[in-house]
């Protein structure tokens, strides 16, 4: 059916490549390109037999012209960006120049200030419309499936959704005293930033990890959850009818938080460059270099993740509640594709988004977040591609 150019060769990319190769009828050909070509070759070497034709290439995606050259030589139908958020705009520019559809899993971030805002990418809407191509933003799990869950709840169960609580729980244990489950820089920027949630048309700011609750999650049990800002809150607050409040919660263990506090207190989580032995260096970049590579956690991580959305609203004038979530097992993900559940839960939805775009099911000119498309084919594909979901109409509510 089509050709995909996949940019980035980290943990998420490994899953995307495996999953595309499991769907060879849709992904007939893929080119895996990244800054370090040997990482692409290592991913390809780990693939089981597949009908998909796979090649690799070197590209510095910070440079639009390099991406343009690669697109012109490979001629893909879609570019799947699973590099880092810093490359979103340069890759979108290359897609515009060549007239190719675009997909990513995280919003653009300026390298020097953590922002978590869609404004830079939403500003491309007119250009993508005029070029007649589609950009699908945030097609991972959160953002991604959480937006699909919200669109599904809105379509099938509610006239108006008033409250959404997104709960992202990871009960996995990798056995290290401290490591991050995906890119340490992006992860630590997210957690050490102020919290924020949407209430009655306003954004309420909190100190980092200031608000904590405990929540009894299906399958994984009671966990401490902390309120964070997360990028899908911005798009869902605009795209969901009647919304009054949206919050995002994530689990952290005591051990993780103690390490993080020490690292913060000594200045290691800062992205402000310091002078060291005649060189400018951002402490967080150095920290990334000494922490375990998230891709190496796969074989060691045991346990499960549970990520889902709790909705409250009205249907036919009556109050209604709904909870939809996925459970993913770290070891099973590793057995299937050689990555732990965090990469798996991001890579599978990226493949599904790209599959729906290639099939022409999710395709219209412009720049869109996932909740702006029909959720049904995506929900169906989650069940068929390793991320089955479960639902409850009597969830425990967060106050
Ligand atoms: P990794 O750090 O493991 O991989 C990133 C890859 O991008 C590396 O191969 C890196 O190459 C490559 N890269 C970095 N800069 C460039 C560049 N200038 N040109 C070409 N390639 C480059 O990250 P993950 O796989 O963990 O995460 C990938 C993306 O997924 C991130 O944007 C992350 O924020 C997002 N994510 C989204 C989630 C969601 O649910 N929506 C959840 C988790 C992650 P090199 O090795 O040479 O540095």
CATH class category name of the largest domain: Alpha Beta
Provide mean pLDDT, rounded. 96
Helix content: 25-40%
CATH topology of the largest domain: Dihydrodipicolinate Reductase, domain 2
Cα end-to-end separation: 48 Å
The largest sheet is: 9 strands, mixed
Low-confidence runs of at least 5 consecutive residues: none
CATH architecture of the largest domain: 2-Layer Sandwich
For the record, the count of structural domains works out to: 2
- Note the beta-strand portion: 25-35%
Rg calculated over all Cα atoms: 20 Å
CATH superfamily label of the largest domain: Dihydrodipicolinate Reductase, domain 2
Count up the helices. Answer: 14
**Number of E-state strands:** 18
Bound compounds: NADPH dihydro-nicotinamide-adenine-dinucleotide phosphate
Q: Structural class of the secondary structure composition? A: alpha/beta
| Principal-axis shape | globular
Question: In summary, what is this structure?
Answer:
The protein is of the alpha/beta class and 399 residues long. The protein has 14 helices and 18 strands.
């Amino acid at each position: 059916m089509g050709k995909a150019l996949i940019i980035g060769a980290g943990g998420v990319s490994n899953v995307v490549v495996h999953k595309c190769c499991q769907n060879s009828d849709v992904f007939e050909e893929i080119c895996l390109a990244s800054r370090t070509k040997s990482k692409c070759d290592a991913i390809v070497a780990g693939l089981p037999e597949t009908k998909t034709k796979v090649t690799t290439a070197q590209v510095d995606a910070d440079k639009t012209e390099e991406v343009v050259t690669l697109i012109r030589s490979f001629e893909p139908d879609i570019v799947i960006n699973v590099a880092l958020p810093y490359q979103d705009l340069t890759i979108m520019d290359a897609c515009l120049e060549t007239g190719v559809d675009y997909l990513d899993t995280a919003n653009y971030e300026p390298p020097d200030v953590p922002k978590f805002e869609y404004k830079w990418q939403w500003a491309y809407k007119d250009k993508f419309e005029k070029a007649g191509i589609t950009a699908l933003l945030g097609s991972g799990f959160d953002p991604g499936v959480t937006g699909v869950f919200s669109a599904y709840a809105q379509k099938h169960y509610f006239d108006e959704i008033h409250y959404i609580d997104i709960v992202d729980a990871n009960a996995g244990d990798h056995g290290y005293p401290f490591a991050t489950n995906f890119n340490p820089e992006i992860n630590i920027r997210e957690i050490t930033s102020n919290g924020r949630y949407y209430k009655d048309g306003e954004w309420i700011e909190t100190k980092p990890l200031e608000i904590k609750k405990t929540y009894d999650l299906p399958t994984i049990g009671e966990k401490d959850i902390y309120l964070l800002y997360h990028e899908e809150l911005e798009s869902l607050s605009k795209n969901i009818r009647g919304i009054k409040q949206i919050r995002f919660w994530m689990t952290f263990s005591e051990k993780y938080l103690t390490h993080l506090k020490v690292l913060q207190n000594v200045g290691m989580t800062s992205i402000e460059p310091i002078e060291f032995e005649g060189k400018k260096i951002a402490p967080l970049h150095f920290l990334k270099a000494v922490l375990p590579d998230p891709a190496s956690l796969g074989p060691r991580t045991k346990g499960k993740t549970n990520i889902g959305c709790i909705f409250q609203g009205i249907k036919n004038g009556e109050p209604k509640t709904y909870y939809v979530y996925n459970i993913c097992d770290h070891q099973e993900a590793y057995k299937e594709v050689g990555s732990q559940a965090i990469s798996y839960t991001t890579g599978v939805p990226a493949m599904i988004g790209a599959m729906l775009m290639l099939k022409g099911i999710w395709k219209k000119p412009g720049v869109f977040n996932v909740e702006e498309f029909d959720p049904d084919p995506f929900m169906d594909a989650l069940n068929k591609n390793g991320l089955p979901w479960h639902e409850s109409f009597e969830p425990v509510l967060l106050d």
